[in-house]
Amino acid sequence: MLSYTSAVTIALDATPLTQSAGGIGRYTLELALALASAYPNDQYWLLSDQPFSPPHAPRNLHAGSGPRNPAERKWWLWGLDREMRRRGVELFHGTDYSVPYVPLRPSVMTVHDLSPWLDPSWQPDASRVRRRTPRLLRMGLATMVITPSEAVRHAAIERFRLAPDRVVAVPLAANSSFRPAPAAASGNIPYFLFVGTREPRKNIARLVEAWRKVRSTLLIDLVLVGRARTDFAVLPEEPGLRVLGEIPDSDLPGLYSGALACVYPSLYEGFGLPVLEAMQCGALVITSRDPAILEVSGGGSGGAALHVDAEDTAALAETMQAVAADPGRFAEFRTKALARAAQFSWHETARRTREVYDAAAHIFRHR
What we know:
Helix content: 25-40%
Strand order of the largest sheet: 3-2-1-4-5-6-7
Number of helices: 12
Shape: elongated
Structural class: alpha/beta
Oligomer: single chain
Largest sheet: 7 strands, parallel
Number of strands: 13
CATH topology of the largest domain: Rossmann fold
């Protein structure tokens, strides 16, 4: 059985690191670094059948090799197991909805959210996840399941008929580099900020519509940061709308800190990491009433953010208008945001994840 006092070798699925950006890739990288730092006696391997850039990491975090022959190209059936045997791996963590097809060792699967099943148009490229993940869960191939919030935990238990004691909510965290910073140089015009992938689920069309209503009476810009997915319609150019695309993480704290508010009206989230990043920078956050986001912000009226119904464009515009007209009125939310964000850390995420690994090993041994 795994334990905190014995050194173990654990593999994490590194496939999310093959993408240049995205929340699952950030989760995989931050978790691997935090685990390796918190448990220096363990050995951690990042494994994928696709090439990825290994992070600058502690000495106990390694990058494995991909398939070595044609047979190993059947990665989830043969290749991954062979690579884990070569590395002496005792437990596998599928960071992106998957685990090996043959249960030769304990495994943990992270289910980030249920968007692939709630609305296929939100995740048009997730057909493999939609088909494969429910089968893996029904067959019990994931010894334990991790979700990033209690909202997703309850939804996953209900949808996939999972045993509640096999599903654990482990909140994410923001990188420690997200902290209050000098405002980014953006001219003399105040701005609202959105950070995230431009995709239908993020509700950007309503955000732009709400901002236009504010802009009709006040000179306020809207800054959009993040990559655009191929299924997202290109926004026409217009005065005050600044689409920056992907930018270095090092530029984000200044943008968060200098914004009138970070506006994140997502229709559905598993966690809502940009909300936490913004709060950790002391930003005022305007966001939706999505259950997972409410968990992150600490609730509704008494929480650390302003919440509106995601589909109520008028309410979103009214809230943005109020902030733009009198920013000082909402200063207390910046203080609340910093206090709430301080309750999250990747060290704590790693500790709680490591407890799940222990539980998975115990269950696997005594099955």
